Amino acid sequence: MTSPARRPSRVAKLPPRERILDAAEELFQSEGIRRVGVQAIAEKAETTKMAIYRHFETKDALVAEWLRIVAADYQAAFDRVEAEHPGRPREQILGLARFIAEGLPAVSHRGCPFINSIAELPDRSHPARQVIERHKERQTRRLVGMCAQAGLPDPEQTAAEITFALEGAQVSTQNSSVDRTGERLMRIVEGIVDRAAACPPITR
Q1: Domain map of the chain by residue range?
Q2: CA dihedral (129, 168, 196, 73) positive or negative
Q3: DSSP SS3 for 178
Q4: What is the CATH number of domain 62-198?
Q5: Taking the CA atoms of the chain, what radius of gyration do you get in angstroms?
Q6: What are phi and psi of 180, to 5 degrees?
Q7: pTM for this one?
């Protein structure tokens, strides 16, 4: 969504539903899903619990909608790199890694919303957990597709290695276990792609 800078004046201009989502995002990111109640969201959004339940049937539905918005931002990154580098899948893959690398400073303060949410939502039938799993499935399919278009001999394996690097960088940034994570991430992903490209085709 948007930056918390000058929040009161900005939030006052948002429609009620967006104001609720904005408040929920800030609280879920800073305090966690389980610790935040609907009353706290209502107060942050300068509205009432009744108004929240007019837009979202349950708190779980609100959490799921927030994560759909976050997932849409990630899917938009795929669209953007494909548009910026048409017919150049290697550059698309590196552009996606750059998107993650550039977002790592925010992760260092709040953590990855998907990783944090999964830790709080162990029940795979939870609607928000299902949003995350569907998002990850789409992300994997698109990344495998890029690897295949790049002519890499084992697209699934290369996509898996890149995913490990992207998600590992987010965790390492969050727990401060590795420095210069953005720079290191770019070098790792570039190395994965180049090594895969140098491998002979797989015969089945």
Answers
A1: 9-55, 62-198
A2: positive
A3: coil
A4: 1.10.357.10
A5: 19
A6: 50, 45
A7: 0.84
